[in-house]
Specification:
111 residues, alpha/beta, Rossmann fold, two-stranded parallel sheet, 4 strands, 32% helix, 14% strand
Length: 111
């Protein structure tokens, strides 16, 4: 199992994970480490998303998700699991558009 981590966070991984240092906002920084894997689990996102963090939510959640989808597709990954969060109960349209855009990107529609 391979896990993308920020420098300095390697010690937080379970022993069975091989750390890959990279930038979640730049798929090219970790794409070469995806070869041979069949499933990508996207867990990157803003802590405690809310309407007050909508701009950050789009900048981090949407961008990291889009980069991960592109990287996974380029290496022919068979499965992509997206953790959706932060949208229920909010009236802020930006929080609702982000997961939809990522789902569309997974399906092959424009992300």
């Amino acid at each position: 199992m391979v896990a993308l981590v920020r420098p300095g966070s390697e010690h937080k991984l379970p022993a069975a994970c091989m750390p890959v240092l990279g930038d979640a906002l730049d798929g090219a920084s970790y794409e070469q480490h995806l070869a041979g894997s069949d499933t990508f689990i996207q867990l990157v996102g803003v802590a405690h998303p809310s309407p007050a963090k909508a701009k950050e939510f789009v900048a981090v959640d949407q961008r990291s998700g889009s980069e991960a989808i592109r990287a996974a597709k380029r290496v022919g990954m068979a499965h992509f699991i997206l953790r959706e969060r932060g949208t229920s109960g909010s009236r802020d349209a930006r929080l609702h558009r982000c997961p939809k855009r990522l789902r569309d990107g997974i399906r092959g529609e424009r992300a």
